Amino acid sequence: MSDGSDEELELTSPLVPLFVITNGRGLPSDHEYEHTALVTAHDSGSSAAARALSPEARKVMNLVADGFLSVAEVSGHTHLPLGIVRILLAQLEEDGLILVRKPIPRVERAERELLSAVLDGLRTKFGA
Question: For FRET with 27, which of 21, 46, 60, 127 sits at 20 to 30 Å CA-CA?
Answer without folding.
Answer: 46
